[in-house]
Amino acid sequence: MNAYKMLVITMLVLSQSAFAEVAVIVNSANNNNIDGKLVKKIYLGKTKAFSDGGKVKVYTLPSSQDDTEYFRKKALKKSNSQFKSYWSKLAFTGKGTPATELDTAAEIIAAIKKDPKAIGFVNSNDVNDEVRVVLNY
Amino acid sequence: MKFISFIKLAAATSCLISMLSLAEINLSGFASINAGKVLSGTGVEHYGVPPTFLADYPIVSAYSEEWDMAPESLFGLQITADLNDGLTAIAQLVGRGVDDYSPKFEWAYLSYDINENWTVQAGRKRLPLFYYSDFYDVGYAYVWMRAPADNYTWQIFNYNGINLMYNTDLGDWSLATNLYAGKEEDKENKLLGDFFFGDTTKEIWKDMMGGVMNLSKDWFETRFTYMQYTNERDIGGEQVMWGGKDSRDGKFFGAAFNVDFDNWFILSEINRLDLEFDGNLDTNMITFGYRINNLTPFIVYSSMKQKGDGVIDGENHNTTSVGLRWDFHDAAAFKIQYDDVKDNSHDFAVAGDSKSLSFGVDLVF
Asked: Does B33 map to a domain?
């Protein structure tokens, strides 16, 4: 019985991660037009604001999570180590501040709900209607 | 009296604590643990230099025919105090194997974001001459064991001054520019004193003024740099004179072009230092690399050549290198590199010809 339960859970988890996408989210009051190019520029520290001004607050999940690796590969065309290498150049020369890392999707959603200038990404299964989804990868 | 001092101290301490509590303090850092040796080399007999591979000129990272871990190993710690509203204070301490790991402040500056486009910084920073100059110590940020030694030869690599940065979008392109001004007075210059002149050398670069412009778009990036300065030098307590003057002017020009397409990349730099009484010192570099999952093999050619009026047998050396970077961990890379150096000058020979092997691990945290 237990083994069966485990199997079902494992299969559920596997199927979730196999079909899940990553959603880029912003505050629901943020009406800026945000496309893939802008997401890429924001996460690479090249653009620091949305078109209506004010500094963007960028959030990320930890490198160790699959969603992070997937997002970097799809949206930024960089592996984890390429991403880290790129950012270490900016962070150690005073040219940029890396994204703030939060451990869970719930924490990212909570932070974005509070801040109209925030952007983040979470697994699309974790999205709720408290935030606005601008892109899916 | 003592009591009053105590109160003063207590007041000062509580002030300090409340100041600290306003700032969010972040620690980050980088390290390189490298080893290397000269497999074969000529040295420079007429200057009494044994077979040597000078892997880093400014800090004199010199490998000999014995395995050595000291020349290029280093440990760096960055402290970032975020004081909110765009104000940050940043310091970087670096301990190097060549200095027995005694830490030194390489960077110590304030940074203020005026708005999302403009940032002003003041304090001690790296001199952004070449493309890799300001993150030279962060091996993890580039593919090679080190930025090509023939290019990164200038004895002054920091400045104390101000830096104004401007970033913006130009359609699909991103523009990042900075303008800076400052001075550096190095009382005991390591490269000139220890390696070239054999006597304590004070090296001053003053009235430095420069600018950098970086344009990038997806897979293409180009960077242009210019800097001018006035040089004064003092060897063994005696002022160096150039053509009857106690100073001379230098102008540095450079361009870098990087292409990163799928798994291929090309990195290149062309630079010139036009230095009074030394002619033109040209430094060039080209790298080809290819990523295969976590492995990145690469090949590099770099050169330095001195030209100009009255320069007959100027500094002239080049290096051909092959190597491999292996990203075995998300925050650490193993690298191995073979360097073949040709030193073609007699009078301005640096370390002679050499063939060397070096390897190590670079990491960031």
From this structure: yes
> What ipTM was estimated for this complex?
0.88
Question: Of all helices (H) and strands (E), which one includes residue A72?
Answer: helix A66-75
B257-293 tens-digit pLDDT: 999 998 999 999 999 999 999 999 999 999 999 999 9
CA dist B242 and B250 (Å) reads 13
User: Tens digit of pLDDT for each residue in B289-312?
Assistant: 999 999 999 999 999 999 988 788
- A 10 A CB-CB count for A103 gives 11
Whether A51 is in a domain gets the answer yes
- Specify the pTM: 0.89
Counted domains in chain B: 1
The number of domains in chain A is: 1
Query: What residues of chain B have any CB closer than 8 angstroms to a CB in chain A?
Result: 28, 30, 76, 78, 80, 86, 88, 90, 92, 107, 109, 111, 113, 115-117, 121, 125-126, 128, 134-135, 137-138, 140-142, 165, 167, 169, 172, 174, 176, 216, 294, 327, 330-331, 333, 364
- B1: in domain: no
Both structure tokens of B92: 């970087």
Residue A55, in any domain of the structure: yes
Query: Are the beta carbons of A111 and A26 closer than 8 angstroms?
Result: no
